[in-house]
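Write out this protein's structure.
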Amino acid sequence: MSPASTLIASDTWVPATWDEYLSALDDPAHVKSKGYYSNGRMRLEMQLSIGFDHSKDRSTISLAVNLYGILKGIPFTILDNCSFRKTGYVEFQPDLACYVGPKATAIPNGTDVVSLEEYPVPDLVVEVAKSSLLDDRTVKRVLYEEVGIAEYWIVKVETAEVLAYQMSDRGSQRIDTSLIFPGLEIATLDQALQLSRSQDQSQVGAWLMGLFQSANS
């Protein structure tokens, strides 16, 4: 077992070579950790620390995206905790990632870690922030700008709202309406999260369906 892998503090960025990062991921102590690597630093996030609120908000956002895509006839594939890697350079494992349009079928079945040397980056990534908000708004945001993600959402668990960014030319700016899912207002995601605080997902889903269907009429 590599000494570098056993001394890694979780939920913080630390200097590391690519080989040290892979060694840390292989350490049984980190078997359930999410891994990020960028610009010679790595971050391991303990999956065991993810609680009810975080999981519920992730599910609510996934529900909203699924219903919107289906009702609007937008081809998409949404992925939960999938790893994306460019060997020696970068790895990220967002809470949710989405391929839209022609890219919806870009990744074949049987793929493990998605190689960014073979396949495109996702169109959208989502990070759910309960204790990681500062990191999600800074270091991870820069990471996603650099790899060419088109749209980035940060779900703020404490306030039940979404910060959405359009990304281009290694920069980003706040948006109020999704460009990846045209017409989907970020305020609608906020409302869905707020409803989920007092209603179950069947009720939240019914509200979303009614809203999306009325927009078509």
